[in-house]
Amino acid sequence: MALSLDRRRFLKYAIVAAVGSVLVAIPGYELYRRWQITAQTVTIEGRYVDLIGPPPYANMELVGKLDTAYELLLDLTGVRPYDGAKIGVLLDSVDSSEYQALAGNPITVVRHCWQELHQQGNCCSELYHTGYHELSHDFMGIPEFDRIIFVTDEFVEGFRALGQQYVYYHVDRPTYEEWRSAYRWPLEEYSKNQFLFEYRFDRDVCASMLMDLVDRYGFDMWKRFFRNIYKLDIGPKEDRTMEERCSLFVRCVSEAAGEDLTDYFKNLRFPIGPTG
Ligand SMILES: [Zn+2]
Question: Is this structure's pTM higher than 0.70?
Answer without folding.
Answer: yes
